[in-house]
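User: Structure tokens for both sequences below?

Assistant:
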Amino acid sequence: MSTFDKDSNPLEEHELLQAHIDRVLATQAPVGVEMDITYRIVQRLFKPTVLGVENIPDRPCLFIGNHSLFALDGLVLNPLMLVKYGRFLRAMGDKFLFANEGVANFVMSRGATMGHPEVCKALMADGQDILVFPGGAHEAVKRASEMYQLQWKERYGFVKLAAENGYTIMPFGMVGPDEFYAHYLEGDELPDSALGQILRKLGLLDDNTRTDTIPPIPLGALGTLFPKPQPCYVGFGEPISLAKYKGKKMTSAQLKRIRGEVAEQIEEQLAELLLLREQTRRGDGLLRRILSL
């Protein structure tokens, strides 16, 4: 599979997009031994605690949440939601994930899709659960000082699509994955570092490289690249039904109000989850605390 590039003509782009949509709609929820093992590993390593699951309506939803460092939230959230709660979330990701055929095959087999409006519309028409992080790649490479802060800029696309299709937005917050790794070096500090100079010589960095798109240098458990076994917490807010807007054009004020409501609910969940985590930290075993340093 390949994605659009600067040399593609409109017809080729349309055909590629339609082929992607056809494949997305044909993808079934992963089941079997691999998913069972993945779920057990997630339970053992990250001990996920879920609050507010009773708020999720028994209808397809657009799940909107805060994005974690390196987009590792899906590592915990997707197996948890599928195996324990029977919700197959179709995570929408950046186009670069689908540029390599091997990577594309891997993520698509687990339900991921290209973050394109037409793909989202097709999934909504098919009545599927969709997972979107409006902060995108920018939020996934944030500094340590920006943990659990929404960085949505002026993005309203998810509200427009939900309204056009009369979908329900399901806000949620997630705590834990942002701390799977410490930041040995922040992304915006990398170009001026010794490592950055080496990367410049290799042609991997230059003066035109945007520092806000460079990920930090991670430091995992015991200084390795293995993620720290941080307990994870997920909290679901109140569903926001946009059924009354279906087929209607929303005003800027309406878009801003709904987006603000979604963001506010996520921030409230994050605050509650961070407090809950502090109240329950004493229950962590010694080994888990050592590996999480």
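Moving on to the next sequence.
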Amino acid sequence: MKQDARKDLLRLSPQSVLSCLLEASGKQTKDQISEANRYREIGFEGENARLGWVTPPTWLNIERILNEFMCLQVAKHKKHYIFSGMGGSINAVKALIQILGDQSRFKLYTIDSLDPTALEELFSSIGDLSKALVIGVSKSGTTKETQDLLKALREGFYSQNLDYRNHFLWLTDLPQGKQNMEDVGWQGVETLSIQTDGGTDIGGRFSAPHTLVFLIPLLLLLDQDLHRLKAIWSAYLSLREKLILESAKKAYELAKKETQHFAIVLEEKLVQALETRIIQLFQESLGSKIAGFNPKTIVAAPGTMPEGFEEVMLETDTATIIVDAMLSMFLLQVFVAIFAYYKGINFVTQPEVERYKRKMTEILFQKTSPAERVTINQLLEDVRKLLQHKPQAKFLEVICYWHLKERLRHHLKRVLKTAFPDKQIFVFVGSDWNHHSYQAASWNEDTLFIILTKRYYEQQIKGISAQTLRKNTATLKTIAYATYKTLNGKAEFFEVEENGLRSP
């Protein structure tokens, strides 16, 4: 969109743009929305509506489908619930586990890494799988990483003489997602629609708190107590109505300032839980879509905002942390939608993501060039040399394609910050990063991206064939290499010994 047109949009009040968003919500075709409303273009992925998240589902719908879930034979008498999906399909579950995970008689787990170590850790935590239910989440039913992970999990159930059809459930868009899954060997497995109304107009990063991706794990963490969930839902709805306009006003304020670097300020107990989800919401929705706009997003506690970032702080402080989390999720989605309207950005698509996926398909069965193997000191020296040729780089982003533990992630970040004190340092896990930041990285010129794979990945796990583990590891490395190749000079690619990163 041309600069003059953007200035014209800024003449619209946040109340007017919010009204446009509400008008477009729930509409399934563009011709149902007035031509003056830009959401008829920027709220659709092609001809597919993607604004179903704006209007909360009714409690009657929620109660009906959650009762349906609890009555499923496959869900009965289970103690362990394993959620598997990628990006927006799993981030809300991770957040809920961090917030409420120690308060329920049920144990919830997530797996979204193709590193066999993640699978080994999961099986070690559960042991006996007879009381476990795997819930796969894929809007299309075709997400490769999710399919590969669930097939590996299926082998684990086979190894304990368990019929996987009694232990697997898919959340997907019906009917197409179910058909896609049956086409690749999931006949006879229970399925539920991701949306409570059976619709298909909510994308992954907007799937909380209004879909089953959020509501099923919340129900389990509340010990399947629908009365408690109803009270939480009512409190959320009441506060949501009071705060939604404030979110729109903040988006208008920062759009006028031409803000590109966002610091989402949350109370400390929510920072880690919501970090990945929020980064995906901002980076994938707004990045690499209009010239000269390259967003960076951090999630921080009050008083820790770095220089050069604009604060986004929404007043959601309630007596209930889960209500705070729900409000934060929804209000930030509204913020992004309003900000995108003023900037003329289609915020529900992720076109650049298809680049690395196409490259991945192209090279999946080809022999690729090995990454340079480095120690931590060699890595620091190589990064120093790379930065000399990229003087405009303000940010250093390191992406680790393995099951990276939080302690090592923070250690690596400290080592890099010591070596490069003038750079803003980010360290991410590859299975997260490709789904939250690749879109924004594609056009970014002020960041050096360092892609790391491990020299050694686990190749022996009881109950899983060596062939499956090799395949998953190969896919993980292929994603890393495809990411490197498609970032067009913005990235470098290295192989490391994970233990060697613990020094200096």
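User: Anything stand out in the second?

Assistant: Residues 226-256 form the longest helix (31 residues).
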